[in-house]
């Protein structure tokens, strides 16, 4: 069983961005639809999270790697990452600024008999409530928020002592503009046109510094690139997109 809850959507939420992605809710789970790229990179995301949790002492042989843990998926969309976290054993909450996404996520989880709490709420609402989680994921979200400093401070507030934050976001480079804006959005149409504002992209150094200011200690940064014959891979090249782990300082 899963549940949904509504809170006032304000603060760090960019209403235009929320509306844009909410309009895509209907085919979020279609691997050939507007979220096809997310389906393709989701295994990489999960592998990165799994490796990060094993590095922090979780048993790689465990049937449910996240058993006994609480997790928060910030900007969950329709639940592409949220559901696997639940299947890995975590007690998961997913939040999104678009009510349409939350409704789609809750319906899909119910069909799969997954017990996930979904809420239409910005992360600062959970921070004000005093909620904390062992694992906080924030994938391809920070580049869409209206107030990055407040957003990161709220992420810190909901990350439990000893917990882990995992983020991914595009880098702000000429190559990311050429790849994501020109190539993926305008030419190949593998990402919905208008999904990104390149000026809101943040570099690894900028994000690391801002996370430090928010009270985190960054533990690792890995780049995500496309390799012919292998698909999406993680490595040292952060010029287009990157993943990051951080812990409360």
Kindly describe this structure.
This protein has 249 residues and is of the alpha/beta class. The chain has a single domain (3-170, 197-248), classed as 3-Layer(aba) Sandwich (Rossmann fold). It has 8 helices and 9 strands. The chain has helices at 15-22, 36-55, 82-87, 99-111, 123-129, 148-158, 174-187, 204-214, and strands at residues 3-6, 70-74, 91-96, 117-120, 133-139, 159-170, 216-227, 231-235, 241-248. Strands 1-4-3-2-5-6-9-7-8 form a 9-stranded mixed sheet. β3, α4 (99-111) and β4 form a beta-alpha-beta unit. α5 packs across α6 and α6 (148-158) packs across α8. It is globular and about 45 Å long. The model has no long low-confidence stretch (mean pLDDT 90).
Key attributes of the depicted protein:
Rossmann fold, nine-stranded mixed β-sheet, 9 strands
